[in-house]
Amino acid sequence: MNTVSTSEPLPSVESELRSAPSNALAATARRLLGDRAGAREITLLLADYGLRVLRPVDPLPGADEPLSARDGPAGRAFTEQTPVVEPAADGTAAVHVPVSVRGDRLGVLSARLPSAGAGPAGVLGLAEFATALGHEIAAAERDTDFYLLARRTRRLTLAAEMQWQLLPGRGCGRPEFAIGAHLEPAYTVGGDNFDWSTDGGHLTMTVTDGMGRGIDASLLTGVAVGALRNARRAGLGLADQARLADQAVYAQFGGKVYASTLLLRFDLTTGTVQAVDAGSPRLYRQRGHAVRQIEMEAQLPLGMFEETAYEEQIFSVRPGDRLVAVSTGVHGARSPQGTPFGEQALRRALDTVPARAPQEVARSVVASLVDHFGSTDLTADAAVVCLDWHGREPAAP
C-alpha cells in the first residue's frame, strides 16, 4: 500500500497485523488502510458456513447486514476470486478484493480508495493487503472465536461444530492442482468429511462418509479421520493407512457402525494416482466434455470387520482433468417424491460450470442437489470435493 513519508521507516503492514490482538484484525486493517492509503468505508466480510452470504466483521454503523456471496460487487469478488472496482464520479472507487489463504476462500475486503490510489497499483496493493490479512485471520482463529462466530447466520449443532473443526478448510491451491470442497447441510452436518495433505512430492486426499446422523456420526468420523491422519503421518502407504484406520474404528465401535472412505494419493510429478475405495464415496473425472465415473474395486468400509486387508488401485490424471468426489448423500440422494439425484443430474451440474474454479464447482453441485431435494435441510449429509489437475512442468534437461 502507499505510505506516508516519515523520517523513520514505518513498520511493515505484515508486522502490524501480526502484533494486533487476535480479535482486533478488522479494526487494525481499518486503521492501517486509512493511515497509509487514505481509504475509508473499510469492511471485512467473511463467508458463512453455507457459502450463501458474506457477513461483516466488526461492522461499521449501519453496515451490519450480510451481503450475497454470489451477487453484487462483493459477491462477484468472492465467487470469481478477483478484484471488483466500482468507480465513482468524484474519482474515488469502491474496491472489493478476495480474502483467501493458499486457495481457501475466507471472504472479501471492501474499501473506498481515493482518486490517487484507485488505479491498478492501488487495487493490487489492496489485494496484497487482503492476502496478508487472510493469513493473520487463519492464525488468529487458534486463539479466538471471534471470526468463527462472525461466519454464522445461526447456531451450529454440536455434531456440526465437531465436524467443521475437523476439516482442513474448504480449498487448497498449489501450482500442480487446485481443490475446492463443500458440505451441506452446513449447520447440522454430522458424518461427512474431506481431508487433504500435500508435501513436495505427493497429495493425499480422502472423502469419508460416517454412518448415521448427528453426534454419533461425528464421533465415528472423528475416529476414522484421526486414525487416517495418524497412519499417514507415520509414513505408511495408502493401503496400510486404510488398514490401521479400519482397526481403530472396529476397536472403538465393534463393527456396529462403519465409515465409508475414498483414499487417493497423487504423484505431483507424474500424475499417477493410488486409490483405495473403502465404501461408498464415488469419483468422477471430467476430461474435455466427457464426464465418467472412475470405476474401482469396492472394498469394505472402515470398521466393518476386525481385520480387513486393503489393496491399492492405480489410475492416472492429465493436465486439464477435473476430478469430483461425492459422498453417498449426493449420488444416493432422492427428492421427497423419491426421484434419485443420480449420475445424469450430477453430470448436468458439472456441465453448467465448465470454466469455474473448483470451489464454485463444489458449491454448484451441492446447489443442484438442494434444488433437487427442494430444501437446504437435506436428510443426509452431502460432501463434494473438486480437484483441478494442472500437473507439474517437466524439469529442464
Description:
α2 packs antiparallel against α4 (120-140). This protein has helices at 13-19, 25-37, 72-80, 120-140, 146-150, 158-166, 214-233, 238-253, 328-331, 342-351, 358-373; strands spanning 40-47, 53-57, 67-68, 84-87, 93-101, 104-113, 171-174, 177-184, 192-198, 202-210, 259-267, 272-278, 282-287, 290-293, 313-316, 322-326, 382-389. The protein has 11 helices and 17 strands. It is 33% helix and 27% strand. The protein is an alpha+beta fold and 397 residues long. Mean pLDDT is 90; it is low at 2-8.
**Spatial ordering of strands, largest sheet:** 3-2-1-6-5-4
Order of helices and strands: HHEEEHEEEHHHEEEEHHEEEEEEHHHE
β-strand amount = 25-35%
Please report the number of helical segments: 11
From the alpha carbons, calculate the radius of gyration and give it in angstroms.
22 Å
Helix/strand-derived category reads alpha+beta
The best one-word shape is: globular
The largest sheet, given as strand count, sense and whether it forms a barrel, is: 6 strands, antiparallel
Give the fraction of residues assigned to helices: 25-40%
Mean pLDDT: 90
Which residues sit in consecutive blocks of at least 5 with pLDDT less than 50? 2-8
Number of strands: 17
End-to-end gap: 40 Å
